[in-house]
Amino acid sequence: MENNTQDSYKSEADNTASARKKDHIDLAMQSRVTKSEADNRFFYEPILSAHPGQEVSLSTDIGNKTLQFPIWVSSMTGGTEKAAMINENLARVCGEFGLGMGLGSCRQLLYEDKRLFEFDLRKYMNDQPLYINLGVAQVEELLQRGQVAKAGELIQKLTADGLIIHVNPLQEWLQPEGDRYTQSALDTITQMIDVVDYPIIVKEVGQGFGYTSLRELLKLPLEALDLAGLGGTNFSMLELIRSDKVMLDSYKNVCQIGHSCEEMIDIINGMIDTESDTFIQTKKIIISGGVTDFLDGYYLMGKCKLPSFYAQASAFLKHAMDYDSLRQYTIHQIEGLKMANAFLTIKA
Question: Considering the domain boundaries, does residue 210 fall inside one?
Fold first, then answer.
């Protein structure tokens, strides 16, 4: 019986091998990679690990909750007809694979519940981390009006875990309907931390943070700092595209100002090396902005000397209308991270 089983296996393997070898011949010329295309961020170490299996753990935490994999779905959308389906699918994939998610701007929900259903996602996410999102201009307004409780009430309505405050002075400056800050974003964030008891994440919207901004934010007891660096969706450019041609021509170079995730990580690492990390109260770094795939995420997490995980927005959004496509994309990100951890090390 054992011999029959082995013969059957060999026969099946031989048939597969024949088809595979034909593919190799047919596709060989299409499969060349030149030296100029090499990814020079990694050492490839093919002999040091077995192929990773389901037992591989890449989990990390944020607050008192666990991400099964170090992947975060960045704040995206709300208030449109497509938003409900997009957010539901994103939440479902977070629930299925143990990821975390930040909601799109919840500004309109502070004063009415008409579109609350688009953001009411806890039922799809199980107990995975879920954060509401408000602009620093809205937080400043809540503080000035003595209405900070509205943010906490919204967190409770959505059974969320905390608040993301997005910092976007350039976007507001360029937006035709934009708000104007009456004090620095740092003052607003600090005041909010002082009067609430839930976790706060601070993020930019596509241009990142300079040295002094990073240093001041790292002094604060934030749950996480989301870098939102230059290289991904740039909301300042988005607003310019919405504006008239004269404004676009006048301000287009402004959108090139900012800091990539790699630059910001180098700044943070330099602070740790030269100043010690005793002043750092922020618990996690979320690496987002120009993170196109798991290789970018693996590389930047490996470089960062503070605990970190990576986030994507547009890459998830691309698949978000079709759950099967979104699910497959997520699986590839997870399996790619496992592969990277097994066979790649980061060059100094």
Answer: yes
CB 223 within 8 A of CB 283: yes
How many of the other CB atoms lie within 10 Å of CB of 337? 23
Which CA distances in Å does 138 have to 111, 131, 165, 196, 335? 12, 16, 9, 15, 39
The DSSP H or E segment spanning 65 is strand 65-67
Integer Cα distance of 130 and 138 in angstroms: 20
What are the tokens at 261? 């995730």
- The residues near 237 (Cβ < 8 Å, ≥ 6 apart) are 206, 252, 255
Domain assignment present for residue 45? The answer is no
First to last CA, the chain: 55
Q: Considering the domain boundaries, does residue 212 fall inside one?
A: yes
| ∠ CA 252-174-108, rounded to 5° | 140
pLDDT digits (tens, 9 = 90+) for 241-275: 888 888 888 888 888 899 999 999 999 999 999 99
Q: Quick one: pLDDT at residue 34?
A: 83
Task: Give me 308's structure tokens.
Answer: 């970190």
- Residue 6 in this model has a pLDDT that exceeds 70: no
Q: What residues make up the domain containing 176?
A: 73-346
